[in-house]
Amino acid sequence: MALKLEKHPTIEAPTGPVVVVVMDGVGQAPPGPGNAVDLAYKPTLDRLLAEYPHMLLKAHGTAVGLPSDEDMGNSEVGHNALGAGRIIDQGAKLVNRSIAEGAIFETETWQTIQARCAKGGSLHLIGLLSDGNVHSHIDHLSALIDRAAADNISRLYVHILLDGRDVPETSALTYVDALESHLARYHAPPHRIFAIASGGGRMVTTMDRYQADWSVVERGWKAHVHGEARRFLSAKQAIETYRMEQPGIIDQFLPSFVVGNDEGPLGPIRDGDSVVFFNFRGDRAIEISMAFEWDDFPWFDRGRRPEVFYAGMTLYDGDLNIPRNFLVPPPVIDRTMGEYLATNGYKQVACAETQKFGHVTYFWNGNRSGKFSEALEWYIEVPSDRVPFEQRPWMKAAEATDAFLQALDEHRPQFARINYANGDMVGHTGRLRAARLAVQSVDLCLERLVDHVLGMGGRLLITADHGNADEMFELDRRTGQPKLDEEGKPRPKTSHTLNPVPLVLVAPDTNLDLRRDLPVPGLANVAATALELMGLSPPEAFEPSLLIEK
Q1: Are residues 464 and 423 in the same domain?
Q2: Active-site residues: which are they?
Q3: 350-359 pLDDT, tens per residue?
């Protein structure tokens, strides 16, 4: 057997399951007025930290395959690292390399785009306008624009999705102004048109994920493809108008808009055009890709569906082949922990609510949608609420716990994993009070989960995939104090953090401790640690286990 797992020479397997708990977005930071994790009432986590071995793991930057340690971690790369047991070069790093080497423009995909545009088609670039480097980077967009101009493409339209989530919450005009300036280098009507054509906030336009709310994609489709949304003379005018009409609105929730005039929209998508979705991260790119590519599409009425050549920045879903065309090959992640366990006959359970279901399945399994074994794996999705997360900060943590514990009792797996989405999804709202409640909700569920697993004779590793709720205010790097807005109030922070995450070992039936001699332990070390907890020797290619016998 090529993926054979051997028994560990000294660690015995437990009688119950080994469970990895991912408290999404619960990082560890110094106490402060914006640290919702520290401020939350969390007696369970506090008790576990007092009674059991624990340490900090690096969950951002080079530890999860991103280009530099200035890059925030995210749930996708975090779960890739947790499931793969290795550090994998990730989307941003792959795209950077492909652009630097010029390989991206030597692909058949780019050559097809160039040929279609030479015959009169327009090029449309859709994606998140940001330098957050979580879903996209404005530098990648700039590179595509520059090459389009060099290849004498005469009409290029950008359809911008506004961030305010991985970057400051009202920073949209910073990026719009930079983009407008860049496009102006090449814009020379009527012979060459390089312009912004449509847009909207990422949480209401185009970037839905896990089929949580198809109306988000429908709004994007209508704006980008048909030019159907409120019309403005410029993107800047749209943003300023929406802010004036809805004081306090943040970028990710700005309504959809179209750029145009009394004669009509500037750049709807027409037959013969080419479309590139320039996000490199897959989860929020899949549904709009399906809308462009799938013939059998039941989720909303697309109306006129133009004949276009559609491509993604990379491959977003390898199993479903979404999209069919892409500019940068995705990372190849094989031999994940899940594949090893399934091949060796071990049963597994994965559970999360909709917002993070793909993370404990698709991303955990190395960007692979399907199960490795229908007979040995059970994937449980608890439908998420469709309301603003700050209004329901408890989300579906209790329901996910119910379903997970039932699955443990019913299937008796040797390994299981659960994600609690609260710390991340509520953290992204920038609402401190809600984030505290989110952490408290997870803590309440954690008590029940730990007691149940230990009662089954199991063991747990409790960790997180990145920080978020641990830093709810923007901080001045020099002073460490919150930045203040015009009214003297702390400026909310909606993005992930660069803080480490906890790892707690709950295995009272053993004499195991956590080793602290590795220079930079990170999320990729968790897989080998979990395998050893199961009484198995991890593969040599995995990052080393963090267990040590007393």
Answers
A1: yes
A2: 75
A3: 999 999 999 9
